[in-house]
Amino acid sequence: MGEVIVITSGKGGVGKTTSTANIGTGLANAGKKIVLVDTDIGLRNLDVVMGLENRIVYDIVDVVEGVCRLKQALIKDKRYDGLYLLPAAQTKDKNAVSPKQMQDLCNDLKQEFDFVLIDCPAGIEQGFKNAIAGADKAIVVTTPEVSAVRDADRIIGLLEAHDLRNPHLLINRLRVDMVKKGDMMNIDDMIDILAIDLIGVVPDDENIIISTNRGEPVVNDMKSRAGQAYRNITKRLMGEQIPIMDLEVEDGFMGKIKKLLGFGI
Amino acid sequence: MGLFNRGANSRNIAKERLKLVLIHDRANVSPQLLEMLKSEIMKVISNYMDIQNDELDIQLTRTKSDEGDRTIPALVANIPIKNVKAVGK
Fold first, then answer.
1. What are phi and psi of A91, to 5 degrees?
2. Which of A23, A91, A188, A245 makes a 20 to 30 Å CA pair with A179?
3. Was domain A3-260 assigned CATH 3.40.50.300?
4. Residues of chain A with pLDDT under 70
């Protein structure tokens, strides 16, 4: 029996979909059987981030309405063994799926897959309630900004009210240069404020945009720091003890030279 | 303080502002209610101890419950004591 993990944040644009795509791909690379479920009905995006937008025939609303069987709606990602996507509907609204239907769907998917990753819509309304209805575990994504952290705090409270205890924190888009200058909250600041366990820290990395442009998850980019961060998160989800990576290390040739000469700061 | 005050550490400003706004968000406890609570607590403690009123810090935060399976709201008070009064001895 698999585990259903919802990736949520409250605030939009902090990296829920990117995180879902990368964690899912990372877990599939590790030999797990994964399904990514896009619950952002009306604003679907996980398909384009994954580069699977041209393969959609049926969607999640078709499944719950019985238009097709669950298996027919699952898109197999041919690049990665064991990775599937259940896309959101683009032309329906968030009430097209009910929490009960979502629970049933998650229970069905759990039988087949090791991990069911739910990409949650922004906000705290019906779409959010649906997305978390069948979840066993939650990952809360935030960036080091007051608005995102405030919303993350609200989401943590709502998750607990829905019996989703011990959510994990994923800090996205951390800028080490700004943290060093004292112009961005650091990892400890955010853990201190939100008081939940950390699952990983993803540094701000332009490779995310480049890989998303191509429809290829950055987790497979061995040179990308964000990719490394997602690979670490994947391992932690599978129960490995991996320390939070040293974000201070500079990239590139000059960084290596500086490090060799002891300017590693 | 102004928009162009680059000297201030904006990380700390963010942290302090967040902590304040979250007090209200978390338990629907207004800053006024917290102020009232604060003065009542000071009144009671002052009967037994001299405390540093200006250093008194009371805030609503989140903490892990004893069972460790969930986080719960907690009232955290940091009250520096100057002197314990000789009452009740």
1. -110, 0
2. A23
3. yes
4. 249-265
